[in-house]
Amino acid sequence: MSKDQIIKSNFKTEEYFINMGPQHPATHGVLRLILTIDGEIIRNIEPDLGYIHRSIEKMCERDSYQQIVHLTDRMDYLSSHINNEAVCLVVEKGLEIEVPERVKVIRTIIAELTRIASHCLWWGVMGMDVGALTTYFYAFRDREMINDIFEETCGARLTMNYNIPGGLMFDIHPNFVKRVKDFITHFKTKIPEYDRLLTGNVIFQKRTKGIGILTKEDAISFGASGPVARASGVSCDIRKIHSYSAYDQVNFNEVLFTEGDSLSRYKVRIQELWESLSIIEQLIDNIPEGDIKVQTKAVIKLPKGEFYQRVETARGELGVYVNSTGTKNPYRLKFRSPGFSNLSVLNKIAKGYKIGDLVAIMSTIDIVVPDIDR
Amino acid sequence: MTKSIHDWLFSILPEGIASITEMVLIAVAYLALFAIAGLYLVLLERKVAAWFQLRLGPNRVGPFGIFQTMADALKLVSKELTSTDRVDKFLYNLAPYFVIVTALLAMTIFPFSKQLQAFDINIGMFFLLAISSIGVIGILVGGWASNNKYALIGAMRSGLQTISYELSVGLSILTMVLLTGSLQLSEIIEIQRTGGWLIWQGHIPAIIAFMIFMIAGTAETNRAPFDLVEAESELGAGFHTEYSGMKFAYFFLAEFINMFIIASIAVVLFFGGWLSPFGITEGITWFPEVFWFFIKVLLIIFLMMWFRWTFPRLRVDQLLTLEWKYLLPINLVNIVFMAIVIWLNWIL
Asked: How far is CA A230 from each of CA A126, A213, A239, A316, B152, rounded to the nearest angstrom?
């Protein structure tokens, strides 16, 4: 008899269910995971969604296009600027207007700052999920600087609403360029500090290396995008393959890893911080002069037809599909959110690992629950 | 001072009643020390955490927040004790006392200074090991009786962890006992008066023993990076999920008291207890030796807090691997090494 059989014949063991969430510190919001557990080992994970469903897509059908922009803040609240941009871009595409260069550059800079802020928050929470609480405060120190820049620029720190169809709501603050440069010099000294505190830690490496491996085939078939897919070697950066705004004017590398484990998902994001910094550096000195918006009609009516725009948020590919019948509201509006597809890989990659691993894997997937539920 | 109280009590009361009164006084003194140590270690932890995390820490209640934990304790005392219907009432209520009483018992035998020691028993170290292993029963019982899956997982992890790491704590203490030849705490300290601190006397094996003791001691107190028992990001609050009010506070305070105990053992075994470094206050009669004891204990506690606020948490299987594959074999070799050192008289 093998060891397992001996154990089975002597001890009665049972698998049992355990509810992780909707109120649980590691699910980052009101996500409920129904876990089937054998001792500490996870046999099955069933995400149960809908605890923060606000039917944003349905609400969009009764709102004007300017109003829809404001709703998208509440999806992936950490990439709110990029969500706004996606809707603005699709409306501009429908109206066939070309926004001024200045708008494109400012949108890109702020989008990259948003990405850095989002990755900072993710880094802090990642540390917390594996038990190192100090990371959170280090990350928030740096994120705070970005939020201050946002506050000065548009009055809001999180739900920005800086974009409007046709351009920007206001011009940038006179201090903007200086403060962004200050931030870049500050943050360049801080990313190595992140590495010293967490990346290089033996315990952290042991907790993430070779854990939760997502193969390239699975990443493609589950529709994973963003850092999750890029850690498995899938080239999917929308900024590269469907360049929008000012991304065609800058040089940056798409960060690709091939291991597909938790550690490579972590490293992709850390590398992306450097890439985002380099994008901002290339643009910050060359903000062209010009208008900050193209005047649109007070009531925007898209022509009859279907429009689609993809952007790269901090979490992956966000798609906005608008089906217009030529009225002031969309007939149907659908968001393809990155979080939903990325979460779907969870059962595939976390099965067979322990509860502690599940928490680490969840945070490397970097889910934002309102983005999944909408 | 203690002697004058003793003489005065025996002069005014019959012998039997006097000794009982004395015991009560000692118990009250220890309870007070226990409460103060527990509360102020919590405050210290919060302050240390704040220093590590670019924050200020508690600073509103009293100067530098010194009354913060008092206020917290008052709040916890005044809270209603809630529990779910499905708990095993008897065991559920018993569990916190297991934890707190064992922590308090272990405190009683420490020599805070030459005069300040309640019970100087000749098997002191053995007593400490025995008592500290009872505490885990409270955690196991609490997690089991809560009838909560998270609490149960936490309790089972605690069982695993304590049984494993107790070996390392015991063996590293044994290594040092080889050197001292005595289990009595006051005697262990006396040995260090002439020959220097034990970590100095025992050099390489003693330093290895100290490292192992610190790792295993941190694990014994269920603190990060070994806080799998609570693991707030995995299990909510682990074994004390269902506890509220003062019962929760007992678990919470016991953790800090246990930390104090581990640090005290380290100070007695490795750093000369209440002896001053290089004997700088040896000749000064009025100098309270207890000062050195507490300074050393606080330094070691600071080290443990440093661990907590820097390291990520281990996974449960890594925890066991660390103990059974690394610490235990190293420890066994270290004991033999120490024996050889003593046999060949390589002691410094």
From this structure: 18, 13, 13, 10, 38
